[in-house]
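Interim report, section 4.2 (structural modelling).
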Amino acid sequence: MRRGLVEGVTVLIAGVVAFPLYWMVLTALKPEHEVISADPRPWTLAPTFDSFVRALTVQSFGRYLVNSLVVALAVVLLSLLISFLAATALTRFRFRSRTTLLVMLLVVQMVPVEALTIPLFFVMQSVRDVAPAFGLNHLGSLVLVHLAFSLPFAIWMLRGFVAAVPVELEEAATLDGASRFRFLWQVLLPLVAPGLVATSVLSFIHAWNDFLFAKTFIISAAENQTLPLALQVFIKPDQNDWGAIMAGSTLMTIPVLVFFVLVQRRLVAGLAGAVKS
Amino acid sequence: MTDVHLDPRPATGVRVDPEAPRRPRWKRKRGDGPIAFAYLTPALLVLVGLMGYPIYQLVLISLFDYGQEQVSGGAPLTFLGLANYATLLSDAKFWTVLGQTVGFAAVCVVGTLLVGAALAVLATRVRTWARMTLFLAALGAWATPAVAGSTIWLFLFDANFGFVNELLGTTGFSWTYDRWIAFGLVAAQVIWCSFPFVMVTLYAGIKSIPGEVLEAAALDGASTLRTARSVILPLLRPLLIVVTIQSIIWDFKVFTQIYIMTSGGGIAGRNLVLNVYAYQQAFAASEYGLGASIGVVTTVLLLLITLGYLRALRKSGEQL
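Predicted structure of the assembly:
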């Protein structure tokens, strides 16, 4: 009886927590006159995809969706490649500045990246003169900053995965005549794949969710905006198209939600492991 | 060491890897340097160019009178030394914003920890189906991008079309007009999207406490509250520290929520926090030097708060 009550409360809380998301999807599916109504109802009897169509066509959300995807995927691929190499170097080799580098990786993670917006703006301005595709107003600038911000953590995390691969395996591979290069790509890389997945999810989410840098760097090239910023542009002072805005929010949230649900188990298990160790 | 630390915020609670680097015995010799360096080069290039150099630049810019004319090359750059900081410290608005930032962050941190901890405890006391429902909902809040989350909340609390006003029968009431109500609304949104991290972490921590300990407490007739305070809390201390530091660091730097929900810092900037203030000074007012100095002050403050917290803990005899 008592447990039933506690469980009822739990479900009620879950409902409150999930309610904003429910409201987002509901609003996206409501016909327009139900959205702009002084008497909003928590259900709809006439669900429609009109808002999605408006968001994707009139507001060209599709374009921004692609931009966001390009940036996030580029960040994921580059950071995987770079952090895998760096993690291998920091785990498998001994060299003088190794410890210093490791400490630096930790310290760098403490720097509030928001404070770096101003200098990075000028860096990107200079980059534009040399390589326009990686400078202000281009997606490349976003790839670069998110790459930089996701690397320290990615390296730090992959290090653990690389260290977990037995050194004997490398010895065996070398004895079988595999070059260092082949060992790296054909033996080590597949073995640390679970670590790669976890780090990619994080890098992806960082890049995907970013609002500040997209706002700062993409100033006058509307065609290069990403989703978070595009969502803002559609908010007009006089009359917001809330249906389209919520449809856009839904489109933006779904990829992240899917990712989270996919790694959910790993997440709880991983955190539990972290507590024990 | 295969723990997955999934956290949408910049990570700071990093564990030291117990696995020391092992090398094939027959290969343990000098000469790894060049190869290691080759592997590290791409990472170093990116990090030095896009983290190291900007940090140096941030400090440098904060020492100059750096406005629109200087950026476009129309006026010479003048070295001001610490004048930007002096301007800042003598500006009443800066102190207001600073106070707001600390207060806002404190409310967010305390709220996040309380909600997260309470729900973590709750999750241990229900059957799997109820717990999964709660976790799924929390996962949704956690996964929602800050921009989307802020927008949803804005619409829920919209003066005319918002569901909350409909529910409360206060149609027409603006939740973003009054300074403190607006801050409260943003804080609620921040807590909504950050408590899941605390909840999941603490839940995992509670689960790792041996069942016998809790059974013993229950047998002794300890109430839920009592068990939480006298048994679970001390055991969770190390985890709580990590979670608290992470919350402090994150809530002190809230940008997106404030920027979106109060449209850039509220009417006449009365909902500004340091991060948004720095941004507005630099990119709206073109006072890059002043903006950079706010950035430096924020960074230093954050470091001081974190260090102070750690010191207080060490004084009370805690091990990290």
